[in-house]
TrEMBL record:
This is N-acetylglucosaminyldiphosphoundecaprenol N-acetyl-beta-D-mannosaminyltransferase. Keywords: Cell wall biogenesis/degradation, Glycosyltransferase, Teichoic acid biosynthesis, Transferase. Pathway: Cell wall biogenesis; teichoic acid biosynthesis. Catalyzes the conversion of GlcNAc-PP-undecaprenol into ManNAc-GlcNAc-PP-undecaprenol, the first committed lipid intermediate in the de novo synthesis of teichoic acid. Its EC number is 2.4.1.187. Pfam families: Glyco_tran_WecG (PF03808). InterPro entries: TagA_TarA, WecG_TagA_CpsF. It is an enzyme of class 2 (transferase).
Length: 240
């Protein structure tokens, strides 16, 4: 793990940083070796509590980032407040902007076939100067060597993996050492948003840190996932 300041939340080490600082630091290092980023929310932390293997995967990451207001709340409960939430989709767009400016290459892995195709097209239309090194749908076996062989040949500067947790982190953990360089990052449902299959919350909801509530209101089936937040905060309070 790259040395920097961290905050331990239920045995997961979150980097203490702003989005701008994170971008600068990762871009300065990504050409030297592959960099593994995890955008973690309370669900991911709770899964790491339940799975020792997944916990070890998170420990192997170079950066674990606070993507989820619950993580920010927990850091305040522990009196070690993180400076800001860093949404994975916004970080991904920052990297795409950089790739466009510097003509860097990008590979997309994940989602349904038509979704990743639409996402790739829209990304390329918005950022015409980046190099689209390739893309593949997410219906794969983690140990399938075909995809990583394609990525090795393409030598992308950024690999965005949208397989959902824990599969996306497991895939990166399994294959990252086979890459010579690049920022490799799990991005959850970001391809669906890029493809227009899903929408982010309106700006006012984002500004109020209520994106989680917007998702619940617009998709009530998420209630099963949302129950992890109070469970997570109870664990934090007990640990404190």
């Amino acid at each position: 793990m790259i040395r920097t300041t961290h905050i331990n939340i239920l045995d997961v080490e979150f980097i203490h940083t702003t989005r701008k600082q994170l971008i600068n630091q990762t871009i300065n290092h990504y050409g030297q070796k592959p960099i593994f980023l995890v955008t973690a929310n309370p669900e991911i932390v709770m899964h790491a509590q339940e799975s020792q293997h997944y916990n070890q995967i998170l420990k192997s990451a170079d950066y674990v980032i606070a993507d989820g207001i619950g993580i920010i709340i927990a850091s305040k409960i522990l009196k070690k407040p993180l400076p800001e939430r860093i949404p994975g989709i916004e970080l991904m767009e920052d990297y795409l902007k950089y790739a466009n400016q510097e003509q860097k290459s990008v590979y997309l892995l994940g989602a349904k076939e038509h979704v990743v195709e639409k996402a790739a097209t829209k990304i390329k239309n918005k950022y015409p100067n980046l190099v689209l090194a390739g893309y593949h749908h997410g219906y794969i076996d983690i140990n399938d060597s075909k995809i990583i062989n394609q990525i090795q040949e393409a030598k992308p500067d950024f690999v965005f993996v949208a397989l959902g947790y824990p599969k996306q982190e497991e895939w990166i953990y399994t294959h990252k050492e086979k890459l010579d360089k690049g920022i490799v990052m799990g991005v959850g449902g970001s391809f669906d948003i890029w493809a227009g299959e899903a929408k982010r919350a309106p700006k006012v909801w984002l500004k109020l840190n209520l994106e989680w509530l917007y998702r619940l209101v617009t998709n009530p089936t998420r209630i099963k996932r949302m129950v992890q937040l109070p469970k997570f905060l109870i664990h934090v309070l007990r640990g404190k």
